């Protein structure tokens, strides 16, 4: 009965149970759409689809974080550029790149001849600003002598001293500037030249052979250094030179080719400057004079050393440009964040839109603090105390439109006003950007570390190392800028070297006070009252603010947070991919067993069909 029932069912289902088609899932060949019409691939992919959505969401977060990391690196570059331009404008002690110390020099003559025919003048940063005149009365010269003439430079010209020959050398020892030179019998002019030059580094005298007339060779001695004090001396008690360098009024009247001579120039018509060298570096600090030719009587070289206003102008405008680039970049983050998704938006456009820094706390802090610094009026500077006083102002919003966006807080420069300030009041402009500190005691000086909170112009330091409380050994008093009342704060005092009190003390500002992040050097006896004045300009404040951010590793930490997030997302994606692959594997095994059952059923039906055919014969 079972056989016949199976055959009846078989007639309803068809002659065979269909095993479906082969397809690929997760790299494996599988049956899809089996005997019961199952689409295995669709079933498996549908089952793991929620996990794929989770992975895609994390992948989006990964792309956004990667993009945000690049945006943050771009931001840090703009901040660094602002710090660099600010550092050029702060007149920090020992800062060789201090732009306000750069100088131009010009030298002219009234006779139409170029001054560079007579002198070249170079200046370093910090050279005094002045106009003066120069006359070149003498140029420095080295002592030069020549020998009598010889018919050959290779034949022997050195004789046995017992049989001397006029106009030739004798074997033996002579001295140049106290250094022994030994000549041997048979030495040629070339050999003698080589022996003298072998000792040139100690004698400061060189030798060379010239041929003024055909067939006449002369040995030339010349000091390596110019000036009277560098003229060499020959000591020849054994008559080794045999008078070959001695003038003979009849046969050799001009053996002293050139006498040693010092350089002589006259400054402002009254001060005579004499040096052994034509290069004079020690007359005026940071100015080098190189004399090349004597001026004629009555000719004067007019020299002008002036501030390099163009370099200062360019540095200030670069500072403004770097601030604007940073400000506009930060505002761009707001514009990007405000964009609405578009139906045709690509994945890259979506990533860019979502990878903005609008809500980043560090970015907000930088934007706020930098602008607050630049909008201040500086204490202690009566004339130029704001950027506006030299022609740098914050432009109105509607006047700055870039790519259809209105930017706020952007600076614009009035070149005419800036150039006028630089021309008329360079020192005041310098104070507007740099740090200026003076005190009535040489024992107190300001250090390299500085904060940005100074908003007063005078500080009174009351120092007493004998006070019981360490934190009370330095009291600093100033007048409050808000209500003109006296304010006293403390600062720490520590020995620079605990084993050597003579090296002095470090005075450091305390957090939360106007001297936060400031340090001073004190070299007094430990009990002293010192009055000081201080102003801190925009360049110094901006430079120190960003420098402090770097010391706190603000950018490094923020970048690390992003990098850690990237690694976290990568691990999550890897973990979820593994879980999805395992689920696929489980489903493949499950449906594989079902297909195996279908095949077994087909085999049974084939057997029953064969039995039916056999029974009907």
From TrEMBL:
PANTHER family: FLAGELLAR CAP/ASSEMBLY PROTEIN FLID (PTHR30288), FLAGELLAR HOOK-ASSOCIATED PROTEIN 2 (PTHR30288:SF0)
Highest rank taxon of the organism: Bacteria
UniProt entry tagged with the keyword Secreted: yes
Keywords on record: Bacterial flagellum, Coiled coil, Secreted
Quaternary structure annotation from Swiss-Prot or TrEMBL: Homopentamer.
InterPro entries: Flagellin_hook_IN_motif, FliD, FliD_C, FliD_N
Flagellar hook-associated protein 2 N-terminal domain mapped to chain residues: 37-142
Family: Belongs to the FliD family.
Gene3D superfamilies, per the entry: 3.30.70.2120
Name recorded for this polypeptide: Flagellar hook-associated protein 2
GO biological process per UniProt: bacterial-type flagellum-dependent cell motility; cell adhesion
GO cellular component: bacterial-type flagellum filament cap; bacterial-type flagellum hook; extracellular region
Cell compartment(s), UniProt: Secreted; Bacterial flagellum
Start and end residues of each Flagellar hook-associated protein 2 C-terminal domain: 260-603
Coiled-coil parts of chain: 559-611
Functional note: Required for morphogenesis and for the elongation of the flagellar filament by facilitating polymerization of the flagellin monomers at the tip of growing filament. Forms a capping structure, which prevents flagellin subunits (transported through the central channel of the flagellum) from leaking out without polymerization at the distal end.
């Amino acid at each position: 009965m079972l056989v016949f029932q199976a055959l009846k069912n078989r007639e309803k289902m068809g002659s065979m149970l269909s095993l479906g088609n082969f397809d690929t899932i997760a790299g494996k060949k599988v049956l899809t759409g089996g005997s019961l019409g199952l689409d295995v691939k669709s079933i498996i992919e549908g089952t793991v689809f929620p996990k794929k959505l989770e992975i895609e969401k994390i992948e989006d977060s990964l792309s956004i974080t990667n993009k945000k990391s690049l945006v943050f690196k771009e931001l840090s570059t703009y901040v660094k550029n602002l710090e660099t331009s600010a550092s050029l404008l702060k007149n920090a002690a020992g800062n060789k790149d201090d732009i306000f110390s750069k100088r131009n020099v010009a030298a002219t003559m009234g006779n139409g001849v170029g001054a560079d025919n007579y002198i070249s003048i170079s200046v370093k940063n910090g050279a005094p600003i002045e106009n003066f005149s120069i006359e070149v009365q003498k140029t420095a010269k080295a002592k030069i002598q020549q020998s009598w003439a010889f018919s050959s430079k290779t034949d022997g010209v050195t004789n046995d001293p017992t049989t001397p020959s006029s106009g030739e050398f004798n074997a033996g020892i002579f001295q140049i500037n106290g250094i022994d030179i030994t000549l041997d019998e048979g030495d040629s002019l070339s050999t003698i030249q080589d022996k003298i030059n072998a000792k040139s580094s100690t004698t400061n005298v060189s030798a060379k052979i010239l041929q003024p007339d055909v067939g006449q060779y002369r040995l030339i001695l010349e000091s390596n250094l110019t000036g009277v004090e560098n003229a060499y001396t020959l000591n020849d008690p054994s008559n080794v030179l045999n008078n070959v360098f001695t003038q003979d009024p009849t046969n050799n009247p001009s053996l002293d080719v050139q006498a040693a001579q010092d350089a002589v120039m006259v400054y402002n018509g009254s001060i005579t400057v004499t040096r052994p060298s034509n290069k004079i570096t020690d007359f005026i600090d940071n100015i080098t004079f190189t004399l090349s030719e004597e001026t004629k009587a009555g000719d004067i070289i007019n020299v002008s050393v002036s501030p390099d206003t163009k370099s200062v102008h360019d540095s200030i405008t670069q500072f403004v440009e770097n601030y604007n680039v940073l400000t506009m970049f930060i505002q761009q983050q707001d514009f990007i964040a405000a964009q609405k998704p578009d139906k045709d938006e690509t994945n890259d456009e979506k990533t860019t839109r979502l990878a903005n820094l609008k809500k980043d706390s560090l970015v907000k802090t930088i934007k706020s603090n930098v602008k607050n610094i630049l909008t201040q009026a500086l204490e202690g500077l009566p004339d130029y105390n704001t950027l506006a006083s030299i022609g740098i102002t914050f432009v109105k919003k509607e006047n700055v439109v870039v790519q259809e966006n209105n930017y706020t807080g952007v600076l614009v420069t009035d070149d005419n006003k800036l150039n006028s300030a630089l021309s008329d009041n360079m020192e005041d402009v310098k104070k507007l950007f740099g740090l200026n500190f003076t005190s009535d005691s040489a024992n107190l000086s300001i250090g390299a570390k500085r904060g940005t909170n100074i908003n007063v112009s005078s500080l009174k330091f009351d120092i007493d190392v004998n006070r019981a409380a360490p934190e009370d050994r330095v009291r600093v008093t100033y007048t409050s800028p808000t209500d003109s009342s006296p304010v006293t704060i403390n600062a720490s005092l520590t020995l620079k070297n605990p084993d050597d009190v003579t090296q002095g003390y470090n005075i450091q500002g305390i957090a939360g006070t106007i001297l936060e992040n400031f340090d001073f050097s004190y070299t007094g006896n430990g009990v002293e009252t010192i009055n000081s004045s201080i102003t801190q300009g925009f360049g110094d404040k901006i430079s120190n603010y960003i420098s402090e951010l770097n010391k706190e590793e603000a950018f490094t930490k923020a970048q690390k947070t992003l990098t850690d997030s990237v690694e976290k997302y990568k691990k999550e994606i890897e973990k979820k991919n593994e879980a999805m692959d395992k689920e696929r594997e489980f489903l493949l095994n499950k449906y594989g067993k079902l297909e195996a059952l279908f095949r077994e059923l087909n085999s049974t039906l084939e057997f029953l069909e064969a039995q039916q055919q056999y029974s009907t014969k």
